[in-house]
């Protein structure tokens, strides 16, 4: 009886292994079918999309699009020119030359300076004679002369 039970057990294990293999194969085939179905749906939808795009583009002409884009560009340029003309200050009295205005301003400043110079009172010249240069001042003057000669020689 024990031997019979062991044989049955082995048979059942073999059947279980076969059933497990069969289930694995069926599961693999089911996944393959699902992938095939998904691919078919994707392909079908891509075909619908291609047909829809073809239908939409059927009435479009590249030359017409280029012409339209050029028209848009021209109109944008016209709009910019109009905007520039409106915002330009020349239409409101800025027709004066900048150089002429600067020259006139300099002339007015010079006249003001001349007028101010006429009103300046200088002190009177002293009537007494100045003392002679002290020795230290003469020595400084000699040193300065020597430095000038040295600078002239160096350059």
UniProtKB/TrEMBL annotation:
Tagged with keyword Oxidoreductase: no
Entry keywords, A to Z: Coiled coil, Cytoplasm, Endosome, Membrane, Protein transport, Transport
Localization per Swiss-Prot or TrEMBL: Cytoplasm, Cytosol; Late endosome membrane
Source organism, top-level taxon: Eukaryota
GO process terms (BP): late endosome to vacuole transport via multivesicular body sorting pathway; protein transport; vesicle budding from membrane
Topology of this chain in the membrane: Peripheral membrane protein
One Gene Ontology cellular component: cytosol
Record has Repeat as a keyword: no
Main location: cytoplasm
Amino acid composition bias (Polar residues), ranges on this chain: 125-135
Entry coiled-coil feature ranges: none
Pfam families: Snf7
Region (Disordered): 113-155
Family according to the record: Belongs to the SNF7 family.
Designated name of the protein: Charged multivesicular body protein 4c
Originating organism: Apaloderma vittatum (Bar-tailed trogon)
